[in-house]
Amino acid sequence: MAKRLPEDIETLVSNLEDLDYYAILQLDSNADYIEIRTQFHECAQRYHPDRFLSAAFDEERAKIYSVYKRMTEAYRVLFDPELRVAYDEGLRGGALRLDPDLRARRLTGAARSLTSPFARLYLNAAKKKFDAEDWRGAAIDAELGLSIEDADALKDLHTAAVRRMVRSGESNHE
Amino acid sequence: MAQEHQFVLGIDLGTTNSACAVVQAGSASVVRRGDDRIIPSMIAARSDGSMAVGLEAKRERLLDPVNAIYSAKRLIGRRYSSPEVTKMIESVPYKIFEGRNESVMVGFGGRKLSAVEVSSYVLKYLRQMAEEALGQRIRKCVISVPANFTDSQRSATRISARLAGLEVIRIINEPTAAALAYGYIEDMDRRIAVYDFGGGTFDVTILEITQNVFEVLATSGEMFLGGDDLDEAILAAMLTQFEEEHGVDLHKHPVARARLRSVAEEVKIELSETSQVSRYIEGVLPDQGKNLNFSLTETALRDLIGPIVQRTVGVCEEAMKIAGIRREQIDEIVLVGGTTRIPIVRETVQAIFNRKPQTSINPMSVVAVGAAIQGAALVGLLVPMADGGVSAPSMNATAVLLDVTPRSLAVRTLGGNVDRIIERNSVVPVEQTRLFTTTVDNQKYVRIEVCQGESASFDENTKLGEVLLSGIRPAPRGEISVSVTFEINTDGLLEVRALDGQTGQEQTATMKVLGGMSPEDVEAMISKAESEGLLEEDGHGGSVVAR
Ligand SMILES: Nc1ncnc2c1ncn2[C@@H]1O[C@H](COP(=O)(O)OP(=O)(O)OP(=O)(O)O)[C@@H](O)[C@H]1O
Ligand SMILES: [Mg+2]
Question: ipTM strictly over 0.85?
Answer without folding.
Answer: no
